[in-house]
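just leaving the lab so this will be short. what follows is a protein written twice so to speak, once as letters and once as structure tokens for the fold. can you read through it and tell me how you think this chain folds. thanks a lot i owe you, the record is right below.

___
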Amino acid sequence: MSGPKESAASLLEVHDLSVHFGEAQRARWSWWHTERSLLRAVDGVSLSVGKGEIVGLVGESGSGKTTLGRAILGMYPIAGGEVLFAGSDVSRMSRNDRRLLRRRMQMIPQDAAASLSPRFSVSQLLTEAYDISGTAPAARKPTSELLSMVELGHEHANKYPHELSGGQARRVSIARALAMGPDFIVADEPTAGLDVSAVATIVNLLMRLRTDLGLSYLVITHDLQVVAYLADVIAVMYLGKIVEIGRAEDIIDSPKHPYTRSLLHSISGRAAAERAMFELKGEVPNPLTPPSGCRFHPRCSFARPLCRTQEPLRTECGKNHETACHFWNKIEATLDPANGRINSKENTP
């Protein structure tokens, strides 16, 4: 098992990873130097994904989830930290080793339809990676096999993207990711924009492929209901940092961080008093100028002076369960364990 504590079976390990972007439009000139605003999109993130494991990465838009996924795949340069895949440091690999690694690490993009060139047929889209990489004919999977893997008939091979439904386009994008025979897939919002029935079929497809092919996933999503069903481990991300991570059942049934509780209460029917205590306030702060201390404190009902000045570190709050909150245990003490409601005798940490 992976999560807060890495296991011997970890396929991917991310240690203190940071991804920063300069903002040229906000440059401030002076006569002796130029200062540039720095967007810390990912700021010291650590997590691991075990072999055959699904890790869900959740959070609001702008939390840095997609940036983290792309950085892991080498699509964005990292400012600090390291990414280890099968024990090897990705940043120190030779060009040839990185080329081979790209076969083992693939991505399912968020906007499946936009990722499919309208000029290519489905068959051409599925074999494009083989042509680019110079894959030998004997090592190429037939189009019919790739379509069958994602439960599409061979009649789709000659169709063009505009002839596909949203669910079919998503399946084609999954098939493209499978073409190179990967071990690890970053699935960015794999169910976004789909109706309920299509969501169910895509989720079940991903689960089946995990079993059949031994795949590991990092599933990026804002849909907690989907990730609760899919994931073995859930990591909650806010403004570039992971604020809670643990086994999926622990995150869903016993969240510790106020932000995690807020996300859960927004989709579930909880006691009115508790919903009010954990209701998200305001908008996500500007990542160019994140709040000092705990980045969540401006939106947290339990924030105290310490939260405004000192950044909380991830600490154990249960078995294989960590959170970054100064007062998680005191907040938990305000809830009546019998019914999960706010304890009227003590409602502040």
